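Sanity check

After download, print the first record. It should look like this:
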Amino acid sequence: MLKYITRPLVNPKSAYNGRFYAYPAIEETVDLKALAKHMANHHSGFSEAVCSAVVQSMVRCIKEMVLEGKNVKIDDLAIFSCGIVNATGGAVTAAEFTTTRHIRRVKLRARATGELSNASLNLEASLKKAYYTTNGGLVMLPDDTPSDTGGSGSSGGSGSDGNTDNNPLG
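Expected structure tokens:
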């Protein structure tokens, strides 16, 4: 179940300033060690140490291959590739172009595929409203309380802050 909070858009330049939107309520970030432990507990036949070593090696290899200019597709996860962020304005001619003046940075791109694609997540997601308490903890309405559950859709943003403005429980 994906928990979400609502908070107003804060953008004075937007016609939608002050309107409320849903944002995912992120409770924790799982690191590679926790992911490996989770994988091992799913009866994969491999220990936590083996899962951890494989995932860590995969991360290093993806980085290496992406920096060689290759796209790396992991079915049902993502296609990883390298992107370039160009400086504003560009060069007037190809001869004037320099990497130091016209490229700001290199970035990692990841496009979801298969089971992890947006379309697949949208079909499988179920939503339940949650609230942040004044101390930053996350609480959900009791099951017998009317709530906006079920259905699916995408929100216009990601991440969450400790917003408690719309928290009736905190």
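If your output differs, re-run the checksum step. Summary of this record's structure: The longest helix spans residues 48-67.
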